[in-house]
Structures are given as C-alpha cells and as structure tokens.
Amino acid sequence: MEIVSQRLYHYLTKRGHEVTLFSTSACQGLNVRQVKVLKFNPEIQIPLDKANEDYEVVHALSSLSYFDISVSSMLKGKKVVSFLSVKTLRTHPNLFYRLVGSIYEDYMIKKGLKLANAVTVKNLGDKIILEKFNASPFLIPDGLDDVYFKPLNEDFRKEVLKRFNLEEGEFALYVGRIHKLKGVEVFIKALQLSNFKGVIVGSGERVEGTNVVFAGPLDDLSKIALIDSSCCVVIPSLSDFVEAFSIVASEAWARWKPVVASSVGALKYRVKEGVNGFLFKPGDYKALANILPKAKDFKVKEIPEDVLPWETVVSMYEDVYKKTLGR
Questions:
Q1: Which of 16, 84, 142, 314 supports an S-S bond with 244, CB 3.0-4.6 Å?
Q2: Which of 195, 197, 141, 144 is nearest to 170 (CA)?
Q3: C-alpha distances in angstroms, 43 versus 56, 84, 173, 273?
Q4: With bands split at pLDDT 50, 70 and 90, how would you rate the model's confidence at 39?
C-alpha cells in the first residue's frame, strides 16, 4: 500500500497534477494531510479528524481499510475505490478472522461499492467476484520500478554471489516479509527434504535452517542480482488474503525467472503451469520439494501481460480518473 501510494503520488505530480495524501503518519517530501485515528488493528483505524476538502478525484486505495473508506466519504469529489483480496478473509487460517473478519469484509465491500463512482482491482479473481455484485471494475496491476527491466552489470552480479557464497543457478530464492502467512517455514521444510539450497531476502526476524542462507533486507540491485542468479523464485504463502497481486512474482518474471507458488490469491490466476512457473497446494512442503528440481532447468516461455512499469500503471489509473470525471 505504501509503495502504490508513493508511486501514484510521484508520477501524478510529475505530470502536473496536484496531489494530497491522507495518512495516519507524516511522509517526508510528500504533500500529506495527517489524520488522527483511533487504532484497533492495521485495517480498522477510525478517523478522529474531520476532512471536508474538495477534490476532483478522491482515490481510496483499499476497500478493506476503514480509514480509507471513511476519509474518502468525507471528502468532496468523484470517488475511485480500489478493491483487493476480495472475499478472502473467510479462508484465513485464523478462526477469528474467518468468523468476524468475513462479516467485516462483507460490510466494507457494500460500503465501498456504494461510495464508488469507479472501481479498480489488481487481479482477475477479484474482478470476477465484484462483477457478481453488478460492478464493472477496471483491472489495474501493481507496477515495477524501471530498474527491473534494465540489464544488470555482470561484475556486480558476481560480486553479490560472492558476498553470500552462492553458485549461479544452484539455489531457489524467497523474497518478502518474514511472516507466518507468507509460508517461510514451508520453504525451509521443502529445502530440508529436497536437499536444495535456498536464499531468503526480506525484513523480519532472522530465520535459520538446513541449506538456508538468510540475506536479510537488500537494495533493489542486490535483489535483482540474486533473482538473475537463482533457478526460481518461490512464493509459499498460506492465505488468499496476503496475495492480492504479488509484486515479487512480477519482479521474477521481469527477469524471466520461473515462479513456484502456492495456489492462493492472485497467484492461482497469474502463474501458468509449465509456462511461467509451477503451483502447489498451500502448506504442502512435500509438493514444493518435488517441484524444486524441475524448476532448476525450466525456462520461462512467456511472461504475463500484467508485468508492467509504474509509468504504464499510473497512466491506467489516470485514464480511470478521466473517465470518472467524464473527460
């Protein structure tokens, strides 16, 4: 969400638009209206300030966010609402989220659709679900920075491999937060079972395991060096809720690397078996262990059409804004 808001802000202001971000915190270098909130969890934050400014377009970046919908409803202007991970809390591993979260989700879907003059989604599954509500969503993916589409200096790539004592094409790569729902433990168990080497890139508590190299958080160029040198990128997430799109999958495909992913969320629509990667049942580390050797020699035949630079993605949002305004 932070990446999307920052990129939208950057490119829209670059094109001459006046943009204000409404947020719960200040962001250096951005035109931000900070709003005080009563916070229950990341999704339920109740605004304590009134906002009644007038804008041409008001964009709520998440239909699930009570803060986004509440602030957007207070502001004057045409409303664009982005829906992500639609109807996914009912499959959440946590029982509380399944029972209470699904009720909250249904409430926010209705609230978001009632508010919206235009609706956007990030994946085909969400589009299909919202069409059943008689909505006509625009399908707009998340983008990538230009660096992911440019050649990498070969000497630098070899230097990164040397830094982590790795051999080209001899390891699988995990990129993402170190979080239970992201399935890091599934990845580690698969590595142990298959005797395959794995590298973990991401922020969070350090993880250990047989055949595991923990690289921690890295800059984009170092991450690209590891993607280019890996045999595949593994996304072992456990829940539909955490994979509304998967920028990591786009990063892998932009470098023509196969994605080995659990069949959750957007991944089950984006990964094409034997074309750009492989799918396995979420949590099935044995299936993942069997796939890893096959992925080692696999070549991506084509990449999805939704692997796009941010410049293109922001143009798509700009087109939606124009259609909403009737020009």
A1: 84
A2: 197
A3: 26, 13, 30, 34
A4: confident
Structure tokens at 76: 């004057």
What is the C-alpha radius of gyration for the chain, rounded to an integer number of angstroms?
A: 20
Residues linked to residue 189 through DSSP beta bridges, in sequence order: none
What is the rounded CA–CA span in Å between residue 238 and residue 227?
A: 22
For strands 138-139 and 172-175, give the pairing. unpaired
Question: What is the spatial distance between Cα 50 and Cα 305, in angstroms, rounded to a whole number?
Answer: 41
Q: What secondary structure letter does DSSP report for 40?
A: S
**206-210, 226-230, 247-251, 288-292: range with lowest mean pLDDT:** 206-210
Phi, psi of 93 (to 5 degrees): -60, -25
**Residue entry with tokens 């204000």:** 20
- Residue 82: strand pairing partners: 120
Q: DSSP letters along 223-274, please?
A: HHHHHHHSSEEEE----GGG-SS-HHHHHHHHTT--EEEES-TTHHHH--BT
Q: Please give the pLDDT value at position 281.
A: 97
Residues 132 and 128: their CA atoms lie apart, in Å, by 7
**CA end-to-end span of the chain, whole Å?**
28
pLDDT-based confidence at residue 42 (cuts at 50, 70, 90): low
Of the candidates 41, 303, 1, 260, the residue with the CA atom closest to the CA atom of residue 22: 1
Helix (H) or strand (E) holding 60: strand 54-60
User: Which residue has better confidence, 194 or 99?
Assistant: 194
Whether residue 282 is predicted with pLDDT greater than 90 in this model: the reply is yes
Mean pLDDT, residues 43-56 taken together: 90
94, 104 in Cβ contact below 8 A?
Answer: no
Question: Residue 99: its pLDDT value, please?
Answer: 85
Q: What kind and span of H or E run contains 39?
A: strand 37-39
